[in-house]
TrEMBL record:
It comes from the Eukaryota. It is found in: Nucleus. Transmembrane segments: none annotated. GO terms for biological process: homologous chromosome pairing at meiosis; meiotic joint molecule formation; meiotic strand invasion involved in reciprocal meiotic recombination. One of its GO terms (molecular function) is double-stranded DNA binding. Keywords: Coiled coil, DNA recombination, Meiosis, Nucleus. This is Uncharacterized protein. Its main location: nucleus. The lineage of its organism: Eukaryota, Fungi, Dikarya, Ascomycota, Pezizomycotina. One of its GO terms (cellular component) is DNA recombinase auxiliary factor complex. PANTHER family: HOMOLOGOUS-PAIRING PROTEIN 2 HOMOLOG, TBP-1 INTERACTING PROTEIN. Residues 22-49 form a coiled coil.
Amino acid sequence: MLSHYDCTLDKDPDDFASPGHIADMNATVDTLKERSSTLKSELKTLQVTLQTLRSLPTADDLGLQVGSLHQEVTELRNHLEPLRSGEVKPISAEEKQKLQVEVKKMQGLWMARKKWFMDLFDAVADGMGGDANPIDLKVS
């Protein structure tokens, strides 16, 4: 039985490539390998760039955002116009101090009322076995 190698001996010697042609083909293969690696790195760079571009808002989205921001600027300007024109009277330092004192009083009253409620609730909860929740006691 003839092997694969035996069959090649029967072929015409003109069918084989010359050493010069083989060297040219090897040079072409090496050049293509180098170009392939260059193209692969370029492909990776372009894929990253594409992903970055896809994550950015589109022109339509940016147009909507710009329109929304223009509307917000208009509303803020309308709100500031009375302040700039002098129609609104600024409060004095004394009035501001009075308001701060009043706020502190209201906060203290609120804290006291919250404490009174919690004391009352704790008393009611003790009467109910201690596992009561204020929401459970709400009358609708």
